[in-house]
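Q: Please design a sequence for this.
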């Protein structure tokens, strides 16, 4: 971010021009945006370079007007993220927050009620900071059973409605069954899947960020 010279330190002859330049410079700074991604290995470019991950591809697409802070950590849970969120908000001062969490909780069959509370805390903290918030729907393997899946996956639209935040579609929704898109562990997307993940979520994400599609 550019350093601004105070007009009070300049001579009276150049003071009016300096005030105009300061106003323009301040407007340019105000036009910049910062997106904070709070997530797990699905956004942490698991087992590949971060430059290959969908979050980095998003940053490249958004361009110089945006700073994308990818605070995703492999293995992250909603409880861990809720603990980290206040420090992340203070350190990065985002105007937009994207929450992509819950997969690790679900794979451990943790209580959907607890996941709900943790995500609600992250949403509330983010909104209190002044940021716009979006929550991504998370889908789990069918092996966890229909009852658990219904309770777990249903908490996302409930949270979004109650807290009045955007609900984005799961970015693996249409590519999970495509050949070469998922690693041998059956969970993590491959490097080849990363551009498709961005395309999957881009229509709703661009609307949330209010950028052209």
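A: Design:
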């Amino acid at each position: 971010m550019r350093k601004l010279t105070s007009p009070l330190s300049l001579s009276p002859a150049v003071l009016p021009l300096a005030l105009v330049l300061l106003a323009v410079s301040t407007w340019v700074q105000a036009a910049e945006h910062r997106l904070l991604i709070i997530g797990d290995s699905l956004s942490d470019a698991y087992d590949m370079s971060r430059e290959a991950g969908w979050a980095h591809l998003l940053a490249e697409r958004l361009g110089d007007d945006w700073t994308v802070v990818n605070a995703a950590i492999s293995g992250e849970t909603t409880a861990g993220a809720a603990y980290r969120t206040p420090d992340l908000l203070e350190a990065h001062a985002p105007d937009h927050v994207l929450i992509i969490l819950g997969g690790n909780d679900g794979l451990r069959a943790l209580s959907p009620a607890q996941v709900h509370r943790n995500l609600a805390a992250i949403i509330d903290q983010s909104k209190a900071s002044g940021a716009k918030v979006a929550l991504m729907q998370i889908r789990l393997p069918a092996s966890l059973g229909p009852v658990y899946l219904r309770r777990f996956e249903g908490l996302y639209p409930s949270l979004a409605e109650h807290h009045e935040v955007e609900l984005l579609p799961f970015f693996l929704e249409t590519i999970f069954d495509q050949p070469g898109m998922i690693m041998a562990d059956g969970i993590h997307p491959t490097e080849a899947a990363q551009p498709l993940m961005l395309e999957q979520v881009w229509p709703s994400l661009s609307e949330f960020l209010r950028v052209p599609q």
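Q: Thanks. Anything notable?
A: The chain has one domain: 32-209. Strands lie at 33-39, 66-70, 96-100, 132-136, 166-168.
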